[in-house]
Amino acid sequence: MNQSRDPTLHQRILGDIEGRIVSGDWPPGYRIPFEVDLATQYDCSRMTVNKVLTQLAKAGLIERRKKSGSFVTQPQAQSAILEIHDIKAEVQSLNLPYSYAVSKKVSRKAKADDSHRLELPVASSVVEVVCIHNAGARPFCLEERLISLATVPEAAEADFLTMAPGPWLLNQVPWSTAEHRIHAVSANAEVAAVLDIARNTACLVVERRTWSGAGPVTHVRFTYPGDRHALVARFTPAS
Question: How confident is the model at residue 166, as a pLDDT?
């Protein structure tokens, strides 16, 4: 076996298994093929397969049972779930024309604050993207995003001119875990200028982090003028 191709092979096996789980092709309770069978299928060592399965177990996608094998886990119930909405669809639901523009896109090393937001070592490679989403002639939302190049190396070459980073990432990487944080802020001078609102206007901020089995994918901060956005979560009481 050519050891130099192991990192690429590792990612391919990880992506294949993760994709089948996230798509529902391998539903909760499904027993994943044994290590020896996966090693034969991918023409690699059992150690490579073991590392992939260990990574998937840490991500909570599978459960490894001694002498029984590895099984797709049952998703844990949540009291309320906020879906990952497409901003373009949000604007169009208001019967307004949608547009967006990229004001900044740069590849750089992660700073201390970036490292905290993305759970990456300091000096890891990231892409920083800033976009303005518009509803008609008015700014609708400011998007400030970090993307881990360790997990999504393709982001280094993407220009995001024809597709915003959010839908682009959904097409590239099947996320397995997401975290939302929602809070209110007063617009500072910079945000007020971008969103064309008065300074200290109340704004709604939605911060989101997503992970895949390969690691952290992105951290994004959406800032909306408070009168232009609402969050709705529908749920039912536990039986």
Answer: 92
